[in-house]
Amino acid sequence: MSDSILQNCTTVGDQSIDIEIRDGLIDRVVPAGEGDASAYDPADRYDVGGSLVTPTVTEAHTHLFNALSEGNPHTNDVGTLEQAWQTGQKNSVHRTKEVVKETARRVLNWFVSYGVTRIRSHLSLTASEDGPFTAAEAMIELKSEYSDIVDLQLVGVPDRGYIRDEEKFSQFETLLEMDIDVVGGWPHREDTREYGVQHTEAALDLADKHDLMVDLHIDETDDPNSRYTEVLATEAKARGMGDRTTASHVTAMHSYPNAYADKLSRLLAESGVSVITNPLSNSVLQGRYDDYPKRRGFTRLDELADAGVTVGIGHDDIGDSANPYGDGDPLKVLYFLAHFAHKNRLGDERQLWDMLLRNNAEIFGLDPQEATLTEGAEGSVVVYDTPSAFDAIRTVAPRTLVMKEGRTIARTTHDAEILANDIGDVEFSKQGI
Description:
Blueprint: E1 4-10, E2 16-22, E3 25-31, E4 45-47, E5 53-55, E6 57-62, H1 81-92, H2 97-113, E7 116-124, H3 134-145, E8 151-157, H4 166-176, E9 182-183, H5 193-210, E10 213-218, H6 229-239, E11 245-249, H7 258-271, E12 274-277, H8 279-285, H9 301-307, E13 311-313, H10 330-340, H11 349-364, E14 381-384, H12 389-394, E15 399-404, E16 407-411, E17 415-418, E18 426-429
Parallel strand pairs: 1-4, 6-7, 7-8, 8-9, 9-10, 10-11, 11-12, 12-13
Antiparallel strand pairs: 1-2, 2-3, 5-14, 14-15, 15-16, 17-18
Helix pairs in contact: 2-3, 5-6, 6-7, 10-11
């Protein structure tokens, strides 16, 4: 923790403020120019010159343990989600604990450089030569290693059919006892509707038993008959677990009849279950079986939000068999969603920022007020190389400064030169575009 002052900041709401941080918390927020810079050591004073400043970012859904694994050695040549699962399982055999840690460190560092200090990462029981708990052991060690700069929340995901296999079930319960924070699952991967319902109910049973949160990959398909989210919401509501339960993906919602989608939106709102959309991966994985027109394949953001459901956003896959692209930059995800979800009107950026900052923090388990620039909140902030929230998304602005509890943990610069004989050499920063 450290004491710092950031002067001349612009917020997402276009306010001009100074932020004073004491003992790792925001001590005062005052109009720009009214902060007491003299109370801070010169090395801890940051005049950001009107740049956008936000709280640090929460990544609500990713897979660190198998990041950068595509093509090592197997490749998803088909491009479907089913093939991604099969290819990922084959590649996991060759990923030792040290390989998992080496690649996950690279990606964790990318996340931090982009202002992400809270990450929810899913991991599975693995078929690695090092044993079924390779991914868990590696990620738990990294959770401790990065604890000063990243709050890492781990989701344990079971094998398909674990509810009918005593050995698989026992292994999964052992996994949940290894400093895992969230119970995961993917009921739509089961062979029958009945097995998928049992999969969902078992996940909630285990979460209740071990006092954990729940976050299931669920209805991640174009099939309109895949309807496990209604089971998750109904059961979570009956058990009083909705506020710690999340439905990730729910892409089948784009294929549901409108009447059923409306019912499901209301049910999710009543239950308190949140939803996470992962536009980068689902844009390439969904619609693979379509001719034309091809479905966009993501959940119904506006309808869910209008019903009162908390909708977050995740980067999801980074360099694995589901999506070989990605580098952990949350602004690239917002930029893509602005186009993908018809959020291209001026003013729509406010909803995008709410998803990234407020909603993701709530899904992570924080009081949303903790992820704001208000007195008493955590003194963890991001400075963007642009003065406006809209332009931060439009230009995917570099994060010039990232602070965790008042302490600088990352810096980025972005400069360029234009070389043209007729106008001379011109130097500029990206902010000047």
